[in-house]
Amino acid sequence: MDLLIELGALAFASRMKRMSEIGMQSVADVYQYYGIDFEAKYFPLFYYLSQKGEASIMEIAEVLKVTHPGIIQIAKELEKKGLIISKKSAEDARKRNLKLSKKGKILLPKLQKIWADVKAVNADLFESRKHNILIALQELEDAWEEKSYLDRFKEFHHLS
Predict the structure, then answer these.
(1) Overall number of domains in the chain
(2) What are the tens digits of pLDDT across the range 70-106?
(3) What domain range includes position 73?
(4) Is 143 a member of any domain?
(5) Which residue of 28, 91, 119, 154 is 20 to 30 Å from 128, comparing CA positions?
């Protein structure tokens, strides 16, 4: 028995969380297999900095569409591991900019190889299914960007 499957649409967010946890752990297993101290949750921030060079916390939060506190939490962990550095912005001393540290830049080629392999395995997995989950996720994200869930809920129940 799988309660979340039985609950269907009611447990959508719980199923997505479970899938996220499975995906994160799967990639964590790959990092561990290669002996790399890196967590899947670091990927979006670390990847963005590897492409951008340097960016403010606010910019990263906007681009990744996650909360400012969420970025700060991941940044602190990456900084503690010595993979990124934080410095005051040249334009505004109240803002912090992040960039890869020397240690982060040294690790980057190993991570890029793993990311390429993870991407290939994921593409094979997703494209071999009846429904490509990446397409479905994009459709849902577009729908929620068009109208919030709360607005849809109120409209559905004729609430103001």
Answers:
(1) 1
(2) 999 999 999 999 999 998 877 777 788 999 999 999 9
(3) 3-128
(4) no
(5) 28
